[in-house]
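Re: magnesium ion structure - here you go.
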Amino acid sequence: EEKDSLNFIEQIIADDLAAGFSPDKLRFRFPPEPNGYLHIGHAASICLNFGLGEMHNAPVNLRFDDTNPSKEEQEYVDAIKRDIQWLGFQWATECYSSDYFQQLYDWAVQLIKEGKAYVDQQSAEAMATQKGTPTTPGVAGPFRDRSVEENLDLFERMKAGEFEQGSYVLRAKIDMASSNMLMRDPLLYRIVRKAHHRTGTEWCIYPMYDWAHGESDYVEQISHSLCTLEFKMHRELYDWFLDQIYDPAKLRPKQREFARRNLSYTVMSKRKLLELVQTKTVSGWDDPRMPTISGLRRRGYTPDSIRKFSDLSGISKRDSVTDVSLLEYCIREDLNKTATRVMGVLDPVKLVITNYPAGKTEILSAENNPEDPNSGTHDLPFSGELYIEREDFKEEAGSKFFRLTLGNEVRLKSAYIIKGESVVKDAAGNITEIHCTADLDSKSGSGTEASIRKVKGTLHWVSIQHAIKAEVREYDRLFLDEAPDSHEDKNFMEFVNPDSLKIIKEAYLEPFLKDATLDDKFQFQRLGYFTLDKDSTAENLVFNKTVGLRDSWAK
Ligand code: ATP
Ligand code: MG
Ligand code: MG
């Protein structure tokens, strides 16, 4: 698919190529930290990086930025790989920052020998105070001018595990008066006494993000290292670190920044998503209300819909919030073209067709998808006892009610025209049965004149004796506030929507659905799009509502 215009990052690369950069040196990476599941924000970065790879036929590495063992886990590595592949992308090489620990250590030793790094043992508070403020220069701490020998010895002993967690750090010796606070002797290493998911207890010193990231880009010979705007100020440091180790015969990576994707009515930071999981506010990272890729997948979103959303929401230079209704638009458009049309009744009331022969069953033919002429049909059993939605019937109603009333006709989808005749009520006055007569000549598709007769409404239904019982889960926004984590005086957890999950224990579905698989997508006619949930068993089918048919969130 040709793109009609380039986003500004794609333009930067096009300009580099125009200026003579060799296309076979293009190489990108997607660098998640394995401390949580991927979310729809990551999808922007994935689509950008892998999209560039596709556009230029260039390799894209998957780099796990695994430099903090206190938050990282193999479970997250596995989930991240699954989600990227599900989105339809394939990385060239699976890389880990931890594979470069020895190289990073060696480079740090080199910096010490060159007098560009030193070991510090002050408290974090003391170091922060010495750093000064953006408007006042910092001052040198008491350990800034240790001898090279002493620094080498201490760093070696840090690595050997002689010191407590948090007691010593290695710092770059740059400029305590720099206008960029990040250049005021930033940390390179800290001691973390925790086993790493890949290197075990081999290391107890771990490189800081800034030190590890650019050097990893260099090791992998990444041409364009794309990151989000909060790293803009880090670019100077990224370049300084590269300056120290860079071989001019090799490619020198460059960092470029784009705006994070934010989505309305949710939070996106992994720390906050983890809090939702740990507090059991949701059932897990893949809860269908989560903005995670795995949650969206379980909800019924398709890879195409997420890639389409990435296209439409774009890559920008400034932070902005994309309305979640755009995401819903993308899945609705996709499912309209692909989902199999079926019928299910979520709030059933019994309907009896009094002139339909008792005990008779017929197998009707239901169109799978009117949007797709090649999609075929499936069998749909009909009988004289049906369920329809309770809200589709009123004994009497005004002319704006296009559903069933006493004395008026509607069509049963793919079946007959029926007319409301009478009701049966229980002692409390609730309707327990609706009695109708059918125009037995009006069967859809039979070719009779009555089969094409127009009536004011069409209802969905299921045959009671053929229907299968299922659980249906409907979802609303997880948060009641448009920007739950933007309030200074309130924690985002205060905005959790207490009614975001509605469970319907006894829905009745047409029997075609009993063979549904997790990949199948359905439109329950007149209700919305649904997909099988992973909690489903042969005895207890569970369906998730992906999205309604119309934009119900429009303001
Ligand atoms: P979080 O705050 O959610 O933990 P992060 O940036 O720490 O986000 P990483 O695992 O480091 O998460 O992200 C991997 C890549 O995805 C990085 O390049 C990051 O810039 C990018 N990314 C993360 N969140 C977003 C977002 N909301 N929009 C666009 N890109 C994102
Ligand atoms: Mg990060
Ligand atoms: Mg993070």
